[in-house]
Write a structure and sequence with these properties.
The chain is mainly α. Among the domains are: 33 residues, no CATH class; 31 residues, no CATH class. The chain is 40% helix and 0% strand. The longest helix is centred in the first third of the chain and has 13 residues.
Amino acid sequence: MSFTKLPATAKTAPTPFQVAVPDSAIQELRTLLELARVAPPTYESLRSDRKFGVTTEWIKSAKAEWESFDWTLSRVVPGVTSRSSPPVAARAFMRSKGREFT
């Protein structure tokens, strides 16, 4: 599935917009992430086949990624805007860190 083309049934075309997230909201998110506790491992959360959902390790990893993510990315990385797709934003972020994203 491609997200670069509008569906043929789309009634309107997207228009440019600006995202304005106050620094206080970003700080609140960081605080909530820091305070969030990960549940202890259970039989269900230890299954690598994810039959019962995501694993405890996946949750810990996702939390760590969110805590280390630069939520002000679009303000500090050239080429990333509110209209950038996630792959574009990821490539720009990796370039800003001197690494290549494939």
